[in-house]
## 1
Amino acid sequence: MKKRALISVYDKKGIGDLGAFLIDSGWEILSTGGTAAYLREKKLPITEVSAITEFPECLDGRLKTLHPAIHGGLLAKRGDASHLETLKKLGYAPIDLVCINFYPFFEKVKNGLSEQEIIEFIDIGGPALLRSSAKNYQDVLALTDPEDYKTVIERLKTGNLSLEFRKALAAKVFELTAAYDAAIARYLLDEAYSAYMPLSVKKVSSLRYGENIHQSAALYFHTDKTGALSSMVQLAGKGLSYNNVRDIDLAWKAVCAFGLSADGTPPQGEKNVARFLPDLPKPPPVSCVAVKHTTPCGIALGNTLVEAYQKTYLCDPISIFGGIVACNVPIDPESAEKLSELFLEIIIAPDFDEEALKVFKTRKDLRIMKASAAPREKHEYISIDGGLLVQDRDQTLIEKWEVVTQAQPEPMDVQDMIFGMRAVTYVKSNAIVVVQKQAALGIGAGETNRLWAAELALNRATRAVGAAAQTGSGDGKPARVLASDAFFPFPDVIEVAAASGIKTIVQPGGSQKDRFLIEICDKLGVAMVFTGARHFKH
């Protein structure tokens, strides 16, 4: 009996060669619509599916292949006599190969089409055909990836169609249909935390290794959504590692929290800030963040990128070495020269001047990432053994602005307080950031004891003040503002902060000892503000 193949594809890549080989090898090709027309243009004889089903395509092409003459030919077990007898009685014949790819829902759902337009790109017949053929992979070749066509042709030539190979093709089918259905479910769902978590992601690259050399790793992006990282373009440098990707993610999220000029996304919590502090002056327009081991080691604002970067560098001149720098404005040649004075792994910016790129490209290993979009993901996913933790992103910043002490913050300190709260959002808890003139002078991150985090931040701030005075970029005065990601359980942080010259503290509040801590601030002449919003980052 002549073997039969059913071919119906949206993406015509390589299909002419596959069809020609099958016809030359004595196969019959069943097809529909545009695919049939395309193969006829290639001078290949085609049998219309409607001739097999004896039923015309209808409902604007929605109904073509959902028929027992087709699915019976796919699902019948060749080694089961009763199955073959049933086919014979019904007048149906087996189908031995199915080649299908879907309407481009992945691509179309990203394009802002109307709901009705999007729904028309939900493929029904294609997934059904593939699922039937993949279930019966012992007898049917299920093809969906154009990259597999040449391999299948070669294996058909040699007869090397092992069960292992057939099973691998079937697995790719169910992998694709699962991602396809998940993307559709995500589009239709209007629930933050649905009963099932439909994730549709596709591997874009294998990474050199994971967090450590003995660990393997790969990078996946959503099929149905474009995010900040999937929008980035690497302009120069060697490939990215697992740690690089995580650092890039943190650096770009942090720099965008202070205002992004690339696509106009407002700073983190801007509406709430405006609600409680309507007269707050606009901060400097340029933001710069340095990251090492997924936590910032410098954050600053400036009127120019050179100014913002110099302030970022002064926070921790040692840790920034070999780190990542992100900024929210295009990089000009002057800034490129300044950034090139230090060994950096990665530089991220919305754009790069041609002359700036020439400067950077003299360092062959330096990765240059062009970022065109602010972070868009509404949720964060953390793998745990046996499942996922899911939460919405921390974007609130402040819930209130309550001055709880006798001392009032100086007007010049309020901007630094808001800056500090944005900064601690991206610093690992326990997090303390000491701020001066829209720059982090000291960052205490990831400590199990809040006092230790404060001591680290204050000591680093003292060194940064001294270094700035020596270079003439500072006046030698101690920082005035300290920000904490969570409340203080004890007065120790307040006491060491006051001893270091801190005049204003901003923190969420909510401790059982808040009243006592307020009294300590009043005795020390320190102003303190409660924001009502905690910013733990584990």
## 2
Amino acid sequence: MTCVVKCWHFAFLFFTPILVFSQQTDTLKSDRLKEVVIQTTRTGSNSPIPHTNFKAEQIEQNLQAQDIPMLLSSVPSLVESSDAGSGIGYTGLRIRGSDPTRVNVTINGVPLNDSESQGMYWVDLPDLAASASEIQVQRGVGNSTHGAGAFGATVNIDLSNIDADPEAVVSSTIGSFGTRKLSAKTGTGLMNGRWHFSGRASLIHSDGYIDRASADLQSLHLSAAMLRDRQSLQVHLLSGKEITYQAWNGVPSQYVNDEVLRTFNTAGIEQPGGPYKDEVDNYSQQHLLGHYKLLLNSGLSLQVNGHYTKGAGYYEQYKAAQFYGDYGFTPWRIADTSISNTDLVRRLWLDNDFYGGTFALRWQAVKGTDLMLGGGLNRYDGNHFGEVIWTENPVGVPKDFEYYRNTAEKLDGNVFVKLEQKVSEKFRGFVDLQARIVEYTFQGFDLALNPTDQSVRHLFFNPKLGATYSISDKWTGYGYFGIAHREPNRDDYTQSSPDSRPKSEQLADTELGIRLVKEDYQFSANLFWMQYWNQLALDGQINKVGAYIRTNIPDSYRAGVELEGSTSLNQRLSLHGNLALSQNKVKSFTEFIDNWDTWEQETVVHTNTDLAFSPGVIANAGIMATIWGKQLQSSEFAQQITVSLSGKYVGKQYLDNTSNDLTSLPAYFTSDLRLNMDFTGIIGKKISLILALNNWLDAKYSANGWTYRYISGLYDARADDPYAAVESGDVYHLAGYFPQAGRNWMATVKITF
């Protein structure tokens, strides 16, 4: 049994006696329980920052086995995708066309994005939403936050809620593609008005929609809290373990529209006789979070947070006909024949540590004034190394031979001042000033193209200001302006020399909007203009060390409008929807295309093209009907049955910045049906059933992909490479797509004690 399962058993043995035999609980759901952790990165309901909140009740209505990007599908301007096509395993999201490396994610204000790639790997913390009391998505630059700069959005996940009453929940899910999930959590309630303990453990498996794209996921979350009159302490331990069969290559362009071959997975097929069974990503991650809050005199409160993350794992690959010299092996001879290559299996390892602290000092002594001083300092230590664990021709190859190793260190510090001021009964303003310093030490190439230890430093100033104006008791207008910076990622540095390194990215974000809030309906309209300087993008260019690199695009922008609305037609019927219309343009950039005949590159200048993965239209709509409902006077739970129908339209997206229709993702529409049933008085406090029919119209679509363009007049690769396609004349491209599952189902039963 794994450590996670053992910890699960320990959690039940430890927490259940407390849950059953605790005699004293504090049932007062007071305001002090709502803010055990100061959410410095969170924004409020009156903020000029466009945002969406998902409360715990809303998460529970949708939570089955799929990951957070799928749960957030209804957020305006958001496009979700899944490598395996099932929503389990490697999943991702883009907001306003910004990829996961440009979406800042925090847990209780602690940065979660990978320090080097700046990406977010949801698979490392499976079933995280089951622990969340709220998830907030801020679009655009948003508030000052810890970690990498937010260019598309900020996702804040709040785990700090403390339930006053004891509770235990067991849930089980089954579904298409061999999906199954078992989860259990328990909490003691607030004992003696001071102590609280909780635990959750989850096991998830899916075979995946794509061939062999299986996922075996385990997670554990333990927490403890101590409350006093003027102070609190909360500690979280989160552990995640994932083993996923690789589906990163995408389905070849020649197969994606074939009903039989659209699930074909090229990972592992270099092994003769059948796919390599261990072509997997195997990674574990543990997070320790600590939050101490102290209420001082004169309206002051202080919070200090500490965190430590340990990650370790590898991805394994079968590679055919590899040259000995590329791995540091010496060729060997049989008779008079020199053997220079071999089939082999390799593991590429990452062993890293991320740790640091943040603080927030808040002053609210004067009515209408909220002043905060905060900051943080985080350090990342990463070890990258590769091992050859098997070779077809093993002569002269040591067991588990390590053929490369390099290290990286990153120091990330910031300090900010935030002031929210009520100027009058109608007018409120805020100012948010942040300074951020980044130091990164790594192994790269010097000017002579020799590998050597190097370092870079960035100092960023990120000012933000905004205001809201109450036009009436129902209408509010707002405006926001913010500047953000982002440093290049690890590959940008390691695959370049000092004179070819890209510059940091800069974004100026302007938001103008209006909100209408009434008891039975809400509406908002938000205009945005996001002006980029030096945005990093692949353009086909090869640098001096022979690597394809991202280069700076001097001038690009995103501009659009986001409309949101919801209404309750009566007590049993409600509607909601949003529409995002945008233009996402590169004013000018040069594409570099490999010429396979001359071994040189040719250039094409493009003007006023669309930014990659940036659909001009994204629309969501949904209707929920309560077909049977009864509120019990003696219980806080409602007995009811609801039916929900939702639909989503995503416009055409391009795989690169060329606006080439031959390398694009066609527009698609998908719709889901969900039945929620909640009953009391049967088992425990409540039994809940969720039956979901996802993509019930069986749409055939892809939500992600990649492309590489080249010129070849002497060789047509289409017969040998299913990724290859012709564009015109001697111009070809390779392209891979990530099809999402057609009609599929999922069923969940949850019992609350």
## 3
Amino acid sequence: MADQEEPALTIKTAAELAEESHVGGAADAYNADQIQVLEGLEAVRKRPGMYIGTTTAQGLHHLVWEIVDNGIDEALAGFASHIKVTIEADDSITVSDDGRGIPVDIQNKTGKPALETVFTILHAGGKFGGGGYKVSGGLHGVGASVVNALSTELDVRVVRDGRVYYMDFVHGRVRTAMEILDQEAPIDRGTIVHFKPDPDIFQETTVFNYQTLLTRVRELAFLNKGLRISIRDNRPAEPVEESFHFEGGIKEYVAYLDAEKEVLFDEPVYVEGEENGIVAEVALQYTTEVKENLKTFTNNISTYEGGTHETGFKTALTRVINDYARKQGLLKENADSLTGEDVREGMTAIVSIKHPDPQFEGQTKTKLGNSDARQAVDRMFSDTFARFMLENPAVARQIVDKGILAQKARLSAKRAREMTRKQSGLEISNLPGKLADNTSKDPAISELFIVEGDSAGGSAKQGRNRLTQAILPIRGKILNVGKASLDRVLANEEIRSLFTAMGSGFGEEFDINKANYHKIIIMTDADVDGAHIRTLLLTLFYRYMRPMVDAGYIYIAQPPLYGVSLGNAKSMHYVDSDDELAQYLAQLPANAKPKVQRYKGLGEMDYDQLADTTMDPANRRLLRVDPVDAEQADAVIDMLMGGDVPPRRKFIEDNAVFVKDLDV
């Protein structure tokens, strides 16, 4: 057998290789030509979501905080005392602070003024070591350059040593090189940044919400005691302005959150300390309510997913209260210790730390991971709170008694929860809710309609798409969970049926990955009772299945108010309000004989009408429940659904609108 000849080694040029790479066609082509090099801030404009999370209204408002954070950093370093945020008449933003002013001398590495470097180069600033700031409030240190990149225009004035330095930019590019203005300084010292967001980036909206900005400005003032932060809106005919300054810091924050609640003691407990460079503050108060309200922050960033500082606080709180209860004989020797859930019932608390090198977990950067933060908060809070309990025995007794009461309710709820878990899928149809499940087991396409009344529930069952739509009728008004303990919540059959149908658990055990439906549609009558039922259901989801609300899984159906038919025509024209009805009737021919049907309840609609107007994805209109401002939503739900009557009465008096039905 002849030897096979070895293939010769062929050496090809880069050009030949590049030509061969295109042989397979465009679909196979992947070479150096496909590697894009984005210069300067082009990367930010290309992928803005990577830098500010989203280009929705939330991302728009995030631009303001990126600039405000720079002023906060100056305040944390002890150089600034007043920050001003102004919404201009054209929906541009001006932020000023009285800090040292951004440096204007030449930066060695770039050969450009530091002012230009800060606004044109990512990751340039005083937050990355070198002694610029001991503690920094910004997450990434890219704020100024990102805001510049995502604005149609931005200008900045820096006042240092009595001189006014000026630069302006267009779409992140320098338009006017740094110059010294021949004008009187508008402030003694500091930085003034003015920018207008780019509508090509923020296509949803470029209109700033005053209330959203106001809420965060107030929160920042609470978190940085002694700092004054002002906000002004120049858009109304008469501009509005508010200024916040809290010498008590988070102690006043807790008092503000509990302003409309009955508290167990007059002054919130306040603890402050420092360990290994970590400054920690804790303020807490107890109310007569059931709900726990715990907020944690790191360098002014809301860590709503918790983290090590929250763990340190919770551990210390539970240990101190149990130790006190045992030593004072308030807990019997053989009695179970109070759990963290028990001792936090009715508690309002703020945990705020300033960390020189915070490490956050996950993509959202809202969970702290530093182990030293847990130790610092635990040690600092334990000593001071234990002393407070000993020095205030009457208050300490109230705290322990509330925990013991919560323990009893928890054990009762545990028994009710176990009963709920025992409900198997086959038993769901026998529950009071009479669930008619859909046949698909894919949660992504499955919808659960929660329907008011058996009559409307029957129509919905007839008109539904059985593959994707499940129907759960409810009778009357469910329990108001805003002022009920968990054991009472689970004793309610309608709520228990809903929890069982969802399959995802509830409260601390809730797991959104186990949800049987990714679209929950609340379908109630268009009257006062329907609105009340809808509010009760929204409160239930917000309190016990909050991730469903955050994920955008909760919707409100919008059934029409009137149906209009002409003569013997079978087709129906639907309208949503008295005004729409009047407009529609006015444009009909004079000889038309319209027949108007007012749907006072869903049960008055035939199943095909209900399906066509309210259930068919091709025609229906749904409102998605989206809490843009979680704290504001939480406060409103507390006020409307909690136990305190006076603030609820005032809200109704201030916001009531009286309407007169159109007589047709």
## 4
Amino acid sequence: MDHSASIAAISYGLAAIAFASLALTSRGRDGPPGVPGLAVPAAASFLWAAILAIQALLRAGQELAALAELGRNLVWVWFLWRNLRALRAKTERVDRLAFLGRGLGGLAALAFTSHVIALFFPASQLSYWIGAVFPALFAVAGMVLVEQFYRNSSVQERWGIKHLCLALGGIFVFDFYLFSEAMLFAAISQDGWIARGAVNALLVPLLWTSLRRRANTDMKLAISHRMAFHSAALMGAGLYLMLMAAAGYYIRFAGGEWGAILQTVFLFGAALVLLLAVFSSTVRAKLRVYLAKHFFRYRYDYREEWLRFTSMLTEGEPDAQVYERSLQAMARLVDSPAAGLWLKQEGGVYRRAAHWNFAELEGQLEADHAFAAFLESRQWVLDLKDCKEQPGLLVETNFPAWLLACDKAWLIIPLLWHERLSGFVVLAKSMSQPGMDWEINDLLKTAARQAAAHLAQAQAAEALTVARQFESFNRAAAFVVHDIKNLVAQLSLLLANAEKHKHKPEFQEDMLATIESSVARMNRMLLKLSDEPGISDKSTLDLGAMLHEVMQSKSAYSLKPKLHIEAEGMRVKAEREKLVRVVGHLIQNAIEATPYTGNVSVTLARADDWAVLKVEDTGSGMDAAFIRERLFRPFASTKGTGMGIGAYECKEYVQELNGNIQVASHPGRGTLFTVRLPLITEPTS
């Protein structure tokens, strides 16, 4: 007997002694909750270790050793399966484990049949499967069962089972490493085989520790969606690696001189494919849908989905990207890669307030549109594919053309606040393409209610902030009024002294200077406060003539803007003073942001029934964060003396005219404002 055989006999002999002791001490003990006794698997492991120790000494009995290996694996898998099934029976959902049970049963039957055939026909070609493939498959099954057992236990329950899971996990992980290597190189590592017995003996104290720990309450094990996903992914990856290892061995065997090179290239490519699948969002989404359809009564784990949804709504800064976070939370419920949000604005128009990867979908909807009334009354989650297949529904709802023209759009979800339509969300086609059923419909409707409440709260907070800022502005106006009062007192005193000193030249000069200074001060103050709404006096304005007037008022500056009118005779309906102030503000900002060596250009063009006014400069520009979060908000300004009301007024008045204003800017490269106003198409009298 050589040296390695004696070491192997000692290694497995220690394992046999350890498992025999465990079997004797576990008689009559139930162990941790849900683990009714380790006597049978410990006894099976004792017989396995003893047979392998004898086989190492006598160098015989290969068939008996293979049967002992099979018996030990079957008993441990049966042990984990029996306890898992018993725990599931308490929740009356044993039927959901039927697929896993059939898989384990099929594996056991196939392995047992192969061992019996090999026992009667020793020269059969089953030695590779018996010696490497079946033990590796049982190791994968064992790891999956252990992972399910531990992941779904609570913190208190893990105190009683963590040593058991560590021990069994260690046994199956070592076996998987040993036999997967054997599949790859067509030979079992001699050192690993010898060390296997001692490794199992080292893990027995962990099993005994777990046996000693008893809990006071029953443990309820539930297979969650996340656990099922990770377990299925782990099992699939393990089976894939074993199949690729077997294919690599065949390539090495059949490849001749190039066999080793071809095997290396093949295995690298197989590993690359596995990594691509692991990091693919589409593959993960389809796996979740498959598991939900075949293993669970409900497609979603509602507790987990709701926690994730509310977490996404409330994370980050209070005022930072609230709309975008709401869109992402809605889209991820159904694995949608893009979404758009339309909210009701002042003036009764639904405009796009935000988007997430959906910049190509644009349009607006009037508040009295039939489609808005349909969403508010029916409160349905609409599938555009189903709507296109039902022409009668399209006629009833009068679908907006810009929605039907977008092939990427999939679902339309109404946002209802106190049974009133506050907006709607458009989702792009899902990566996993789930069927639109009652469960998705109810989930999205419930999530939409939560999102609508969150958005309403955000809008209310924003309105309150604006109101407080206007309150501060009104306080500032009170100080201006106080200054005017002081000026009135000063002029009253001057008037009182005029009777005595009106004939003195010095007094006359001082009086004129004081009056001139007071008038100038009052005019400046009144200009700041002369934003009286008054009565709307909209009239028909010629945009070309109005622009010439505005450009003339800017001629005193050293940097003179250039005007380009590409279409004449364009008219709009607006209040002249307000529109002049809006256009003048945009041009003034461009001049102030541009050095005298730069350029400011104003272009007026026509696009269908719209007048397009562009104000472009080569000045300092603005970053995306400022444009998104501060540009069109009141009292937000980058100028030291600015009050931040001009851009806010521009946007509000342009939208009041049913137009829109857009901005494109890059720091250090300039800014482009684009104003679109609806033209008067009917002939004027």
